[in-house]
């Protein structure tokens, strides 16, 4: 019966009008003729076809019960009435079939078979037929009767819609409003069936909703005189209103939102152009109604998500057919639109606070979608809404948005509010999921949103200490929130006022206790899913006090190092330079304080007040040590571009001068401070010498140095520095109009210190060369005289640097002389570390350039380099290592064997540190020789294999590292000793007790595979299996993670080699052979 009803519908809509022959008729006449023909064909089919007898009886029964006019002069309405009757017949038939259906029991033999379908299920072709019928019903029975501005007009849809709009006769009875009411009510009746309802609402919800809006809410133009003149009764209008709200609640909410937005329409548009039909603006009552209904959708549970989905899914991902930039711009515009909608409090809400209380949790939920495609747009909407609300209502946004987001971090700070039952050791304060979600949400709001609103910045300030502690903890291991914490900290430090940013950095370093940080009773712990959680710390026993003290000291040191890493990203904005200057100023305060206060009585004879004073002094000493540690880390981590403007450089010089004056006041002058003072004054000389284009405002900043320079010129014992300070003071006072030779020499010395090899501009070299030839000669004579008298040279560092750099400069223009060589050799024994290191670098440069006079003294130079290997300063012994390596590259036969003997000697001959430095030299020599290293294969391999059995673990690791560098370059020459090398590596990797040595052994295999590459299958064919078993053994049983990592890398290299060996890459080559 259901199939018969559907076939009837198909017949009804597939019949054609009779051929009109040669008559030229319009589209309107064709449509009317087709409708009349189909109506007649349907009646004939129902009367004559016995198969449709039951359907005819059912239709007549429903028609007799119907309360709407079914026949009309207007063919379109008659056609619509018959269609509605057939749809009602279909519905009744499907209900009866479903009621009589009783599914049988599933067969145990074929449990995988699908259950039997209900007989009221429509096939795909039947669904298409029903959808076509519904489209005709809506086109003929709903859309033509909508007043202008309500819904999308038929003329704006298709050309067929424009024809329908013209053929409908609105003046014929029944009235247009009655027709619309009948169509909407019957369609709602049919929609009570689930299958038919989904077909109706999925495509025609907007038109039905528009009809119900017009029926229930459209105001009448005049009040009728008599009740019988009313087209719709009040009960029918009430039914329309209730039906509208019912279907809005039933359908997919984003669909309801989208259709209501379409009904509400946009701004008014011009309708004067006849060629392009433009939709007229919706009437005022409809706009108000849609706004009210949209607000109700928004206020419902999950209403925010429905509104967001309705707008985003309705408008699409971007401009249709547009470029990526256009799509992105359109996407941001939609997000801004949604943010404005969500941030505006609707009239239905009692107050803005009630609205924010209901809506804000839903906005926060938008951050946490798992689907990547959906999450990206939803998070963008949430971020934009978050910022819009914070801008428009900061107090409510702080209460209902920011506080819930930052609640996990505030929970750590407000431990006093936690009951005692929740403070047991091991109690979890913040779970892994809460902390990860908190950090991710903060990143999305602050960093992605990138709006430095006052409420946002102020809300994050109290928890910055906890954020930095979390960042330090994530640096200890792998964590997915490490980069998020770093980006958040960098964002807030960049947006804060400079004073607040410096204060926050002081709190991070531990210099300011007023900055909130993670309480001592809380701790971060690694969680099961790879995240981090916050728990209550275990109580420390008396036996563990030493361990707790060690943990505290090491954690403070790590905090300082991590702060240095963080500041290394803040150099461009100038924050790192300002904080460095602050630390220098704190160092000046340390130098100015009197340390004799610590020399007090014994503890047994102290009063309580004295004990408190002593505790204060001890804390002060701790602060001083912390400042020194901070400066050490900053000097190590920061680059030379730490200062970004003149003001910072002047502040740096001022801090240095203040510290020098303070040291003079306490009579505590040191060599290091003398060098620092020379360098800082040299910076001022460089700026005044033209390296920086100074303006009048810059000289106003430089004048801050005048009082300090005057103090230095009056109090400093060194006459050269006194003279330089006085000359700088004159140059600054005259705005550079007057400058002495001392200022030029100091500037040249500072530039050469930055570039000891003389790579400065030729113009600067020649300009200073003329002014200082006489002073060079006097300086050299005074140094010779002091050496003859057996006295120590007290020449200031500036003059020494100028001398060394001038030697290099002279060499640039031609060959070096014997006197220049002798002077540099003497400088290599100078007690001043910069002078000695510069001399060693100069000698290395001459050797690299194959200067004949330097190469003639190879034995003496080798002795100088080897003696300086014993020096404890890094700059000196690294320069010596470079010199020995370059000299060995020139004369490997004479020098390499001696180095091997020194490296192979025991602890009684050379210190372990010296042997390690010689090992570094050998590694550089091996790299420099390249393919020529094969000539010295035997002594090198024997020395390194013997070193792998040395009692000193550091020497064993060094020997294995050098062995790896050597094997990497031997290729096929390794074949004769491959068994010895393999046996050594296997024994060390399996039996050595020191983890560093085992790591080195595995790393040799990595280097071996990388160096041999595709040759490994030939060179290592006899031992490849043994090496593979060794690597698998290390991966399974080695307790050290780093060694396991090296083994895994080696296995990956071996896997790549074997894949290329077994499956060589296909080369598309065409060979051309010339036949004889």
Automatic annotation (TrEMBL):
InterPro entries: ARM-like, ARM-type_fold, HEAT_TANGO6, Rtp1_C1, Rtp1_C2, TANGO6/Rtp1, TANGO6_N
Example of a GO biological process term: protein secretion
Chain intervals with Polar residues compositional bias: 802-816
Residue numbers spanned by region Disordered: 751-816
Compositionally biased region (Basic and acidic residues): 752-771
Domain RNA polymerase II assembly factor Rtp1 C-terminal: 821-932, 1024-1056
Residue ranges constituting the TANGO6 HEAT repeat domain according to the UniProt record: 298-572
Record Pfam families: ARM_TANGO6 (PF23565), RTP1_C1 (PF10363), RTP1_C2 (PF10304), TANGO6_N (PF25267)
Residue ranges of every copy of the TANGO6 N-terminal domain listed in the record: 9-297
Superkingdom classification of source: Eukaryota
PANTHER family: TRANSPORT AND GOLGI ORGANIZATION PROTEIN 6 FAMILY MEMBER (PTHR20959), TRANSPORT AND GOLGI ORGANIZATION PROTEIN 6 HOMOLOG (PTHR20959:SF1)
Family per record: Belongs to the Tango6 family.
Protein name, UniProt field: Transport and golgi organization 6 homolog
High-level lineage: Eukaryota, Metazoa, Chordata, Craniata, Vertebrata
């Amino acid at each position: 019966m259901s199939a018969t009803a559907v076939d009837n519908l198909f017949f009804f809509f597939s019949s054609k009008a009779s051929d009109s022959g040669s008559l030229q008729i319009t589209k309107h006449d064709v449509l009317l003729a087709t409708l009349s023909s189909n109506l007649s064909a349907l009646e004939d089919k129902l009367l004559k076809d016995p198969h449709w007898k039951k359907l005819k009886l059912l239709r007549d029964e429903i028609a007799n019960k119907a309360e709407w006019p079914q026949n009309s002069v207007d063919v379109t309405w008659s056609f619509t009435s018959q269609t509605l009757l057939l749809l009602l017949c279909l519905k009744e038939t499907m209900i009866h079939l479903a009621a009589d259906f009783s599914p049988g029991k599933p067969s145990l033999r074929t449990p995988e078979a699908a259950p039997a379908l209900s007989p009221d299920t429509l096939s795909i072709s039947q669904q298409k037929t029903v959808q076509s019928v519904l489209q005709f019903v809506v086109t003929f029975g709903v859309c033509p009767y909508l007043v202008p501005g309500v819904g999308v007009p038929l003329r704006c849809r298709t050309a067929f819609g424009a024809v329908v709009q013209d053929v409908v006769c609105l003046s014929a009875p029944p009235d247009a409003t009655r027709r619309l009411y009948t169509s909407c009510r019957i369609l709602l009746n049919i929609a009570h069936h689930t299958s038919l309802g989904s077909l109706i609402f999925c495509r025609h919800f907007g038109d039905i909703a528009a009809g119900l809006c017009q029926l229930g809410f459209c105001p009448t133009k005049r009040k009728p005189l008599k009740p019988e003149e009313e087209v719709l009764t009040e009960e029918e209008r009430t039914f329309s209103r209730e039906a509208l709200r019912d279907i809005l609640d039933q359908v997919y909410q984003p669909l309801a939102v989208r259709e209501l937005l379409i009904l509400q329409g946009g701004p008014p548009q011009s309708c004067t152009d006849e060629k392009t039909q433009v939709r007229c603006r919706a009437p005022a009552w409809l706009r108000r109604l849609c706004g009210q209904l949209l607000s109700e959708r928004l206020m419902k549970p999950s209403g925010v998500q429905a509104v967001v989905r309705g707008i985003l899914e309705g408008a699409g991902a971007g401009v249709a057919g547009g470029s990526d930039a256009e799509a992105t711009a359109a996407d941001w515009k939609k997000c801004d639109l949604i943010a404005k909608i969500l941030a505006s409090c609707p009239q239905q809400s009692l107050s803005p606070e009630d609205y924010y209380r209901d809506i804000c949790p839903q906005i926060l939920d938008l951050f946490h979608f798992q689907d990547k495609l959906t999450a990206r747009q939803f998070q963008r909407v949430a971020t934009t809404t978050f910022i819009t609300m914070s801008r428009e209502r900061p107090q409510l946004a702080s209460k209902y948005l920011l506080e819930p987001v930052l609640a996990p971090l505030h929970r750590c700070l407000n431990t006093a509010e936690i009951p005692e039952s929740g403070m047991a050791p091991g109690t979890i304060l913040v779970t892994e999921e809460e902390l990860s979600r908190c950090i991710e949400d903060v990143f999305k709001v602050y960093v992605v949103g990138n709006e430095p609103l006052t409420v946002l910045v102020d809300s994050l300030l109290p928890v910055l200490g906890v954020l930095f502690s979390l960042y330090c903890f994530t640096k200890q291991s792998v964590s997915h929130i490490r980069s998020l914490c770093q980006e958040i900290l960098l964002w807030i430090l960049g947006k804060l006022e400079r004073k607040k940013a410096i204060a926050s950095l002081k709190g991070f370093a531990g210099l300011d206790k007023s900055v909130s940080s993670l309480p001592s009773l809380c701790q971060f712990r690694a969680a099961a899913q790879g995240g981090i959680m916050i728990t209550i710390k275990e109580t420390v026993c008396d036996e563990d006090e030493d361990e707790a003290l060690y943990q505290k000291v090491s954690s403070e040191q790590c905090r300082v190092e991590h702060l240095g890493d963080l500041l290394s990203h803040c150099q461009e904005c100038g924050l790192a330079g300002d904080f460095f200057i602050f630390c220098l100023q704190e160092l000046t305060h340390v130098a100015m304080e009197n340390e004799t206060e610590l020399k007090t009585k014994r503890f047994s004879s102290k009063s309580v007040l004295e004990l408190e004073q002593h505790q204060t002094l001890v804390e002060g000493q701790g602060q001083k040590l912390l400042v020194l540690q901070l400066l050490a880390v900053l000097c190590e981590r920061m680059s030379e571009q730490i200062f970004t403007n003149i003001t910072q450089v002047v502040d740096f010089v001022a801090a240095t001068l203040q510290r020098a004056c303070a040291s003079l006041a306490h009579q505590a002058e040191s060599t290091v401070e003398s060098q620092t003072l020379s360098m800082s004054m040299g910076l001022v000389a460089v700026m005044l010498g033209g390296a920086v284009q100074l303006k009048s405002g810059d000289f106003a900043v430089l004048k801050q140095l005048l009082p300090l320079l005057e103090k230095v010129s009056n109090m400093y014992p060194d006459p050269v520095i006194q003279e330089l300070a006085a000359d700088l003071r004159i140059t600054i006072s005259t705005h550079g109009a007057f400058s002495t030779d001392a200022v030029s020499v100091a500037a040249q010395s500072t530039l050469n210190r930055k570039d000891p090899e003389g790579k400065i501009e030729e113009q600067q070299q020649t300009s200073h060369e003329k002014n200082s030839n006489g002073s060079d000669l006097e300086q050299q004579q005074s140094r010779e005289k002091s050496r003859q008298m057996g006295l120590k040279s007290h020449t200031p560092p500036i003059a020494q640097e100028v001398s060394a750099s001038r030697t290099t400069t002279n060499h640039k223009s031609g060959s070096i002389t014997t006197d220049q060589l002798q002077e540099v050799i003497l400088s290599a024994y100078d007690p001043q570390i910069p002078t000695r290191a510069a001399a060693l670098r100069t000698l290395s440069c001459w050797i690299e350039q194959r200067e004949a006079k330097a190469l003639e003294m190879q034995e003496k130079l080798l002795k100088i380099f080897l003696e300086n290997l014993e020096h404890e300063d890094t700059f000196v012994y690294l320069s010596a290592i470079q010199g020995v390596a370059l000299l060995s590259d020139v004369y490997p036969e004479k020098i390499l064997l001696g180095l091997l003997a020194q490296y192979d000697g025991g602890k009684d001959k050379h210190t372990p540190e010296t042997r390690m430095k010689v090992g570094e030299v050998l590694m550089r020599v091996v790299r420099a020789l390249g393919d020529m290293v094969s000539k010295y294969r035997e002594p090198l391999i024997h020395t390194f294999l013997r070193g792998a059995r040395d009692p000193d673990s550091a020497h064993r690791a060094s020997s294995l590292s050098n062995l790896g560098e050597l094997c990497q370059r031997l290729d096929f020459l390794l074949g004769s000793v491959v068994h010895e090398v393999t046996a050594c590596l296997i024994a060390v990797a399996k039996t050595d007790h020191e983890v560093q040595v085992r790591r080195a052994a595995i790393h040799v295999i990595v280097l071996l595979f990388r160096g041999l590459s595709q040759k490994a299958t030939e060179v290592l064919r006899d031992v490849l299996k043994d090496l593979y078993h060794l690597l698998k053994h290390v991966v399974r049983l080695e307790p050290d993670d780093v060694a396991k990592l090296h083994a895994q890398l080696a296995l990956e290299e071996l896997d790549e080699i074997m894949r290329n060996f077994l499956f060589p890459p296909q080369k598309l080559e065409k060979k051309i052979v010339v036949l004889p």
